[in-house]
Specification:
Elements (H helix, E strand, L loop, with lengths): L1 E3 H6 L1 H9 L4 E5 L2 E6 L28 H9 L7
Parallel strand pairs: 1-2
Antiparallel strand pairs: 2-3
Length: 81
């Protein structure tokens, strides 16, 4: 749903209720999108999903540490100006 800032001021309660029930509301001002209202989701009711990118170095046996590996990649580069 898309509403203008003027409509938002006039029908704030209705628009917030609409967003609270799971719909997204985009607010426009002078024809440009300026804000988005989305339903609030409590972290207590949400299952925490671990992202696979976190800890991606933990299983690497060939590296001493990530820091040493990153330095080895930079070796030989020169940033003289």
């Amino acid at each position: 749903m898309e509403v203008t800032a003027k409509e938002l001021r006039g029908k704030l309660g209705q628009i917030v209720a609409y967003a609270a029930h799971g719909s997204e509301v985009v607010v426009t001002m002078r024809g440009k999108k300026v804000a988005r209202l989305i339903p609030y989701v409590s972290l207590q009711n949400q299952e925490i999903v671990k992202d696979n990118i976190f800890g991606m170095w933990k299983d690497r046996q060939d590296l001493e540490t990530v820091k040493v590996y990153a330095r080895s990649l930079r070796k030989g580069r020169r940033f003289d100006r």
